[in-house]
Amino acid sequence: MKKFASTILSLMLLFVLFSGLSLASPNKGSQEFKVYSLSNAPEKGGEVNVEKLREVLMKVSSATIYPDMKMEGSVESNGVNRSFSLTGQLYRGSSGEVVYGKVTDQSNCFDVLRFEIIKNPQQLSTINKKYKKPILVLYLVEKGTRNLLMSEMPLDSLIPLAEQNEMFLNSSKYEVVPSEVALWMARFFKFDGLSEGESTPDFQISSIIDSTYFSHYTLSYNWFGSTATDTVSMRYTFTKPSHPSENVKAYTHISGNTIQHNGETFTTTSGSISNWKAENVEFKLETAAPEVITWMNIDAQGTQAGTVKVEFKYSYSVNGFSTGFSYQPAQEVDLNLSGQNVNQSRGALFRTKNGFGLTKVQSHFAAASWDIACSGTGTTCNGSSTAQNRVEISFDLYNTIALQSVGRKSYSHSFYVTQN
Question: Residue 278: its pLDDT value, please?
Answer without folding.
Answer: 86
